[in-house]
Amino acid sequence: MTDEALWALGRGTGITALLMLTVSLVLGIAGRSGRSVFGLPRFGVVAVHQFASLSATLLIALHVTTLVIDPYAQLDLVDVVVPFGGGYEWFWVGLGTLTLDMTIVVVVTSLLRHRLGHRVFRAVHWISYAMWPVALAHGLGSGSDTGDAWMIVLVAITVLAVLVALALRLRADFTEFHRTRKVSLR
């Protein structure tokens, strides 16, 4: 694979990962209501949310791997493991590393959900609310397409989608879906 192809793959997987993180976050927020979303029943919302989360995770892994082997990107393992420890664009790359670290924590706790219990899983899963804006800031700060019109529109759409989902979530009439059943003690 040529250096130019590696660079394009690194950029493309980063942008697509942000889109999938956005879909995952929006559906995760909307799915808490227990209502259908975009015509999908609750199980469909959960399935698409999980697919988007897994896709984002795999795209992030491919994004990082591609940029580590790309000589133009000049990333080394310190940049990948230690947030804000690298030399090149240390702050913006550090935000990407922080996103990777948060993704790993959310994935591991998701895989261990049944062993950890719902309360612990949910508490750790709140990291997702912080992960998305950190990933967005990473992309805006270190992305080479940030000034392009298509990227500005894409970012605006993702921000709007998340803001609308958060506004709906924070409404007083938002009812959260609970799995608890009321048992009659007659």
Could you outline the blueprint of secondary structure elements for this entry?
Layout: H1 3-31, H2 42-69, H3 77-81, H4 90-111, H5 113-116, H6 118-125, H7 127-142, H8 149-169
Helix pairs in contact: 1-2, 1-7, 1-8, 4-6, 4-7
Transmembrane segments: 12-31, 43-69, 89-112, 124-143, 149-172
Membrane topology: Multi-pass membrane protein
Subcellular location: Membrane
What do these coordinates show?
The protein has eight helices and no strands. It has 186 residues and is an all-alpha fold. It has one domain. Helix 1 (3-31) runs parallel beside helix 8 (149-169). Mean pLDDT is 87; it is low at 180-184.
Average pLDDT taken over every residue: 87
Q: For the CA atoms, what is the radius of gyration?
A: 18 Å
Number of folding domains? 1
Order of helices and strands: HHHHHHHH
What is the distance, rounded to the nearest whole angstrom, between the alpha carbons of the first and last residues?
Answer: 70 Å
Oligomer: single chain
* Basic shape: globular
Structural class category? mainly alpha
Number of helices: 8
Biggest beta sheet summary = none
Unreliable spans are 180-184
Percent range of helical residues: over 70%
The tally of beta strands, per DSSP, is 0
Strand content: under 5%
Membrane topology: Multi-pass membrane protein
InterPro entries: Fe3_Rdtase_TM_dom
Pfam families: Ferric_reduct (PF01794)
Subcellular location: Membrane
Tags for this model:
186 residues; mainly alpha
